[in-house]
From TrEMBL:
Domain Receptor L-domain: 61-163, 200-304, 345-438
Keyword Signal: yes
Endpoints of the signal sequence: 1-18
PANTHER family registered for this protein in UniProt: RECEPTOR L-DOMAIN DOMAIN-CONTAINING PROTEIN, RECEPTOR PROTEIN-TYROSINE KINASE
Chain coiled-coil ranges: none
Lineage, highest ranks first: Eukaryota, Metazoa, Ecdysozoa, Nematoda, Chromadorea
Protein name per UniProt: Receptor L-domain domain-containing protein
SUPFAM superfamilies tied to this protein: L domain-like (SSF52058)
InterPro entries given in the database record: Rcpt_L-dom (IPR000494), Rcpt_L-dom_sf (IPR036941), SPS2_domain (IPR053079)
Keywords for the protein's UniProt record, in alphabetical order: Signal
Length: 511
């Protein structure tokens, strides 16, 4: 009875990563509609390459529009014919597919170096029992990133170079199974019964979902995993931490998903991703959600440092800092009491750092500080610039809605440049608040917006957005009413002709 109950409460990983399907006819019709890319002289009309169709190939073109498909009908084409046909081909506009062939290599693509997969069609290399060499793919450039890539059932093909080469680094829609060597383990479903099959996996591809799981010890089979490509969701479990992923170093997300979604895990007090070094989500924010965890849940400063180093965005971040000041790298961590009491050699500071009247003489103590776990306020000082914070890369507030960085009432402060600062964070509405300082900090909205871009966060300047730096009527007020984060604010920004570029950059930062 207990056994049955346990079996029903299994962990499962949703089978989202399945074979990509496509309709070649539709793909071709859509491609040929893009007349700006598809020169009618340089397109290949046939649905597959065969002895009957190969002479339709526009041999004189270097850039050819095609959904170029090799199938079993291509098997009886002599290699020399393939080679002479594709001799001049440098770029494919479209995609190519190799399915059900007896080819051993694709070296007849002697000059192919680029693919403009403008409609992000599926690239498929499947069911080729003799294929051993597709090196053209590992070196080819791509204009459009992250199209679906499928390699399956090629028993003599080592696909692993694809996953380490730069040209596919931003791709995460990969379905790679049943080749001689895959990239790692492609996850379909993991449950308590089959988790043991993943014991030798050092990298996992695919969205991972743990739900309603009761026994994390069974997941120790995942403890060799170092790289994860695809979003992870952990919901409705009683896990206390994710220590079964304690060796995970890299997480590559999906630009459309919450990449680390921890939701309704009431017993979770720690993350436990002790080896995490790198988060990556193409050009987009790496989205994290930590919600509905144990009230004592805490993040170590090392974990938070990883989050803040990459452009992480939070749906919710219900966490405090753990009261731990020793670091694996041995860097000195100080707990802030006052500027006068602060040691000279702190690299990390926990607590709310307050620099105020009379503290000017101590500011050199902050010159090697890289991270503040808490807020930074500089108020009522005679400081002129913030050069002493040149090594400060991040300030992140948890469990409080105060600004991450507050620069208030420093009448001589005219230069607020922070050399290394990126993505200061607070759960509150304003990451950076600048008010009542020297009137010449920003001489134009351009300078203010430039500053926002350089620090990667919205700046509230004298109570308003950057648009108000010059109130000459060119800028309409942005809607800040109750907006929880910077994206809403910049989304309503009024982009004047001169500021379109800056706005575009801001949107990029705030996506
Ligand atoms: C592909 O799409 C075309 C037109 O949309 C349709 O006629 C054809 O049946 C489809 N082929 C498959 C295999 O679904
Ligand atoms: C491709 O097909 C279209 C329509 O069937 C035809 O008009 C065009 O001439 C063909 N192009 C080539 C290069 O064969
Ligand atoms: C390849 O073979 C499989 C199974 O034999 C078949 O389902 C599929 O349609 C074939 N694909 C092509 C492009 O011929
Ligand atoms: C590349 O193109 C040049 C000129 O079109 C040709 O001479 C050469 O043989 C091609 N190289 C390969 C490897 O096909
Ligand atoms: C993890 O990914 C990195 C970067 O792509 C690669 O260098 C490394 O070999 C991978 N590690 C494993 C265990 O696959
Ligand atoms: C893991 O590797 C060991 C040693 O190579 C092998 O004996 C075992 O079968 C593998 N386990 C799985 C699940 O692949
Ligand atoms: C997991 O538990 C939730 C809440 O009890 C329930 O709504 C959901 O259907 C369960 N999911 C599965 C797959 O059992
Ligand atoms: C989870 O937390 C609840 C309440 O705090 C507790 O009763 C239960 O024993 C915990 N379960 C596990 C597996 O730790
Ligand atoms: C943090 O831990 C230290 C000892 O390690 C203790 O003295 C201090 O009171 C703790 N602080 C909090 C806020 O719990
Ligand atoms: C700054 O000075 C003003 C006026 O002297 C005072 O009201 C305010 O509390 C001071 N702020 C801080 C943070 O010391
Ligand atoms: C940053 O720290 C290094 C020592 O780690 C120091 O030499 C350098 O002067 C600091 N830079 C600034 C701008 O303070
Ligand atoms: C902040 O964390 C402390 C415990 O560290 C907790 O007592 C307090 O309620 C939290 N405050 C907020 C606003 O969540």
């Amino acid at each position: 009875m207990t056994c049955l109950l346990l079996l029903t409460l299994f962990v499962f990983i949703t089978p989202i990563y399945t074979v990509f399907t496509y309709n070649a006819t539709d793909d071709m019709a859509l491609l040929f509609e893009t007349t700006e890319y598809c020169d009618s002289q340089c397109r290949f009309n046939a649905s597959e390459v065969s002895l009957d169709t190969i002479n339709l190939w526009p041999v004189d073109c270097t850039d050819v529009c095609a959904i170029l498909k090799f199938t079993s009908s291509s098997n009886n084409i002599p290699y020399e014919k393939l080679k002479s046909t594709f001799l001049n081909l440098k770029a494919i506009i479209g995609v190519f597919r190799v399915e059900n062939t007896t080819m051993t290599n694709l070296s007849f693509f002697g000059n192919l170096t680029f693919m403009y997969n403008i409609n992000k069609n599926v690239l498929s290399i499947s069911n080729n029992p003799k294929l051993t060499d597709v090196s053209v793919l590992f070196t080819m450039g791509n204009s459009h990133l992250n199209y679906p890539v499928q390699f399956m059932n090629n028993p003599k093909l080592d696909v692993s170079p694809l996953c380490v080469r730069r040209n596919f680094f931003d791709f995460n829609r990969l379905y790679i199974v049943n080749n001689m060597k895959d990239c790692g383990c492609t996850v379909t479903i993991i449950n308590y019964a089959n988790v043991v099959n993943f014991k030798n996996c050092t990298s996992i591809f695919g969205p991972i979902e743990f739900s309603n799981a009761t026994d994390p010890s069974k997941l120790s089979a995942l403890s060799n995993v170092r790289n994860i490509t695809g979003p992870i969701s952990i919901k409705n479990t009683n896990f206390q931490n994710l220590s079964f992923f304690s060796k995970v170093e890299r997480m590559k997300g999906d630009d459309s998903a919450v990449n680390l979604d921890i939701h309704n895990n009431p017993n979770m007090t720690r993350l436990g991703l002790d080896s995490l070094l790198l988060l990556h989500s193409g050009d987009a924010w790496f989205r994290v959600n930590i919600q509905g965890v144990h009230p004592d849940f805490c993040l170590t400063i090392e974990e938070m440092q990883v989050f803040t180093t990459f452009n992480t965005k939070y749906v919710k971040l219900e966490a405090n800092y753990c009261n731990i000041t020793t670091r694996k790298d041995g860097q000195k961590t100080c707990v802030f009491e006052s500027m006068s009491a602060l040691a000279d050699d702190c690299v990390h500071i926990m607590g709310n750092v307050a620099v105020s009247t009379g503290d000017e003489e101590y500011t050199r103590k902050l010159s090697i500080v890289t991270n503040i776990y808490g807020s930074l306020s500089i108020t009522n000082t005679t400081l002129k610039n913030l050069e002493f914070l040149g090594n400060l890369t991040n300030v992140a507030v948890l469990n409080d809605t105060s600004p991450a960085i507050l620069l208030d009432s420093n009448s001589d402060l005219s230069d607020i440049f922070l050399l290394s600062m990126r993505f200061p964070y607070t759960p509150g509405p304003n990451a950076v608040v600048v008010q009542n300082n020297d009137a010449n900090i920003f001489l134009s909205p351009y300078q203010c917006e430039n500053y926002q871009n350089s620090v990667g966060a919205y700046v509230l300047y004298n109570g308003k957005g950057c648009d108000w730096v010059l109130s000459d009527g060119d800028y309409t007020e942005i809607d800040t009413g109750g907006a929880p984060g910077i994206s809403e604010k910049t989304a309503t920004r009024n982009c004047g002709v001169y500021w379109i570029l800056i706005c575009a950059l801001l949107f990029f930062v705030n996506i």
